[in-house]
Design brief:
Length: 195
């Protein structure tokens, strides 16, 4: 099964769902917009319908979007760009409703994690309580771990660890219990790690 998002985004790069799977979000390289879809059956993309809701991040990004994530409750949204070296944080007054998103002036500067400072952020993942953020650097084949002293607030993030991967990572996710890490390579493979 599949769902075609080509009417909204022709160069898809990022995908996320609401916690219950009844909303799906897609963005990418062609548009500087986050598009929202309703699913009548949670996590079943064959039931998806574009609900005409979108949010433009053109005020923060001059190039396409490389990644998108929501907080566990959907009260915050995070967007990264190809060449900005930053993740931007947005507040949503209605959980998971992108039309209620407002940029709150907060961003995480990935360039502080790398030397030299050119960083290519692609993937990001949160732990369940928002105390840890993980990001991928496609250019340096590296995963960065960040601690957040305030849950899901990247203004409180500090880098605490790095992991070198030879797999050209473009996306990252974890198992529900956090004991497995998965990296999607820039080629055609998913790699599994024990944490």
């Amino acid at each position: 099964p599949y769902f075609n998002v080509g009417s909204q985004e022709t160069s898809g790069r990022a995908l996320d769902f609401s916690a219950d799977g009844t909303k799906m979000y897609v963005c990418g390289g062609a548009q500087k917009k986050v598009f929202e879809y309703d699913l009548s059956t949670g996590f079943d993309v064959t039931t998806a319908v574009y609900n005409n809701n979108f949010f433009s991040v053109s005020g923060q990004l001059s190039t396409g979007i490389s990644d998108l994530r929501f907080s566990a409750t959907g009260h915050r949204m995070y967007v990264s760009g190809y060449t900005t070296d930053k993740m931007f944080q947005y507040d949503l007054s209605t959980n998971y409703d992108v039309t209620s998103a407002v940029y709150n002036g907060v961003y995480l500067n990935f360039a502080t994690a790398a030397n030299p400072t050119s960083l290519y952020p692609y993937g990001a993942a949160w732990n369940q309580n928002g105390s840890k953020l993980y990001t991928c650097d496609n250019y340096r084949d590296t995963v960065y771990e960040w601690d957040c002293t305030t849950a899901f607030d990247i203004s409180t993030a500090s880098q605490v660890a790095t992991y070198s991967s030879a797999h050209d990572p473009v996306s990252i996710t974890f198992s529900a219990d956090g004991t497995k890490m998965y990296l999607l390579s820039g080629g055609d493979s998913v790699y599994q790690y024990s944490v």
